[in-house]
Structure formats: structure tokens, C-alpha cells
Design brief:
globular; 22% helix; 151 residues; alpha+beta; single chain
Length: 151
């Protein structure tokens, strides 16, 4: 029985790759201003915004359920415009023994390819893959893109 896996998705956005990457790496606390219906709050618990090892607490809503997730920034690659968050506390750990969220933004002509990967290990075989979470992130892309294009 395989309990570990990963799910991935890509979308195209109009915002430049560096601006989209910066929103998650250095300004995640601004995301609640962009999409309050999805992200109610984002607080820094340790470290500095955009720094490796920083701990961030997210308050968010999926399917009308208010959730929290405490994450540590495990990796930042400015050259490849990628960032990795590891969930260390909160609602996702009620279903997953581990959950990592990887984001990479890739310039593609006049657009940006936003690539999400969720690496997970389920607590048991009855837990579904984190497809709701992946869908949440893809939908959030639209809100962030609209905001960044207007900046």
C-alpha cells in the first residue's frame, strides 16, 4: 500500500514570473489583501519574510472550511524562481504525515507558467490525495495574477 505521492498542476498567468515568485517568497502577507475569500491571514512567526527557515502561519478557507497551516520555508531558489514550504503544524497534518508545497514560476514569452507540486504522505489509505488543496492553489493563482497585472 503506497501512502506517499505527489500531485502537480500548471497554469499560465499574465504576471511576470519574478513578480509572481516574489508574492510568495517575500510578500505572502499581501495575499490576504488580494484574495480575502481564500486567505484570511498570513503571519510571520519566526525569521524574516523571504528568508530560508522562516515560519509562516496561514489562515485560509477551502470549501467553506476555515483552516490553519504553519509552514517553514525549506528552500528558496531565486535563479529558478522556486520556493518550497513544509507544513509543520495545522489542519493538513490531520490527514497527512507530511506535506510539502513546491512552487516554481517559469517565464514563457509574454506569460508565466506557474507549476505547483504537492508532495505528501497520507496517514492512512482512506485519505485522498491533496487534490482539493491543489485546486485551491490553482484558483488562488487567478486572484494573484489579476492583482499583479494591475500593479
Amino acid at each position: 500500500m503506497v501512502l506517499a505521492g505527489k500531485v502537480q498542476a500548471e497554469t499560465l498567468v499574465r504576471a511576470p514570473a519574478d513578480k509572481f515568485h516574489e508574492m510568495y517568497s517575500r510578500r505572502p502577507h499581501h495575499i490576504s489583501n488580494v484574495s480575502l475569500e481564500k486567505i484570511q491571514k498570513c503571519d510571520l512567526h519566526e525569521g524574516e519574510w523571504g528568508s530560508l527557515g522562516s515560519v509562516i502561519m496561514w489562515n485560509y478557507a477551502i470549501d467553506g472550511n476555515t483552516l490553519v497551516s504553519k509552514q517553514i520555508i525549506e528552500a528558496i531558489d531565486e535563479k529558478n524562481k522556486s520556493i518550497t514550504f513544509k507544513v509543520i503544524e495545522g489542519d493538513p497534518l490531520k490527514e497527512y504525515k507530511s506535506l510539502k508545497i513546491l512552487l516554481q514560476t517559469i517565464p514563457k514569452g509574454d506569460f508565466t507558467l506557474v507549476h505547483w507540486t504537492l508532495e505528501y504522505e497520507k496517514l492512512n489509505k482512506d485519505i485522498p490525495a491533496p487534490l482539493k488543496e491543489l485546486g485551491f492553489l490553482i484558483h488562488l493563482n487567478e486572484h494573484i495574477d489579476d492583482h499583479l497585472v494591475q500593479e
